[in-house]
Write a structure and sequence with these properties.
Layout lengths: L1 H24 L13 E6 L6 H13 L9 E5 L13 H8 L3 E3 L4 H17 L4 E6 L3 H13 L5 H4 E5 L2 H5 L3 H10 L1 E4 L14 E2 L5 H4 L3 H17 L9 H4 L3 E2 L3 H8 L7 H8 L2
Parallel strand pairs: 1-2, 1-4, 2-3, 4-5, 5-6
Antiparallel strand pairs: 7-8
Amino acid sequence: MKSKSLIFAALITLIAYSQCFTVQAETFSADRFNIKKDLLLVNFDCKTDVDDIHTAAALITLMSHSKFEKVNYHAVAGTYGIQEGLYVPPNDLFQLAFEDNWSDGHANSDKALEQVMKKVKKALHKDGEIWIAEAGQSDFTAKLVKVIQAELPKIDVSQRIHVVQHSDWNEKVTSPESLKFVQATTDYLKIADGNAVGNGTPGFRIPEYTGWENEINDPKLLGIWELAVEIGLEYNGKDGRYNNQAVASGGLDFSDLSEVCYIFGIQNIKDAPEFFEEYGR
């Protein structure tokens, strides 16, 4: 009788362990993004607001989480439109965060386009789709779509290329012809602004916030955030650049990450503190 009880207890333990393992091993499930085939592109204008610097740190924080670590993604810097103002140099941060998984569209837009196209072709040939989070304007995206149409004419870009934008200002400073082209040819999705809380998307702009320092356990991620905050404070409002009040007060602004959250179907967080509580650890 005792041996049967021990066997039963062992079976219960084994079942519980297997269920725990299954939960830990599974990746996220979203109606939109197919982790097995799709490519995520995050295009950063880095001009003239420093919010992209914080967004880059937030992006790698998300990509480092066990749920998203297998996502096929690529970051592109310098995808700005027609806005005035100086560029915010992101290279040190992008190299630290993304290593070789980013392209420098500011230094050489054509080279960046070539690098991105290699990844796009690979995903499309696998029957995947391309999801573009516009952390800025759509001028670079317009160039990319035109190259896809020229080199892969059988691809229906209206079905296979998804562009997500959250900012009215970003649209206003995209060159009109580029914006019109992207809206007409791709699956263009406009979501609520990620600067505000309670509008249907997470609000990731928060003044006077330093709570992230206690939420990030990984030393590399902590170093990335420290560099992002340092760069943000150094260039915020400098030489006529946009003065982001949330950053100036010692807070954070990674509002462009709201688009990535939309693409991945992340609906359980409402603001920056909840983001760090969920993904910083």
